[in-house]
Amino acid sequence: xxxEELNALAALLREHGTMPRSAExxxxxxxxxxxxxxxxxxxxxxxxxxxRALDLWHALQxxxxxxLRPAPSSPQAA
Length: 78
Fold this sequence. Notes:
By secondary structure, the protein is mainly α.
């Protein structure tokens, strides 16, 4: 989970239309975690926030996977 990966994931989600507010909030939360980690790598809050940020990161990846999943094809009449 790096800043570059977060930016790429955010761009991917945004290019496929309007994102739910919950996804935007998750992006902001992961961004805040990364900002704290970059600026204060020894901050005590990182220990407790890491698992939460990682859970959000995985949820965002799942959302991206669903966004990119091809639509089911409709059966064609024979």
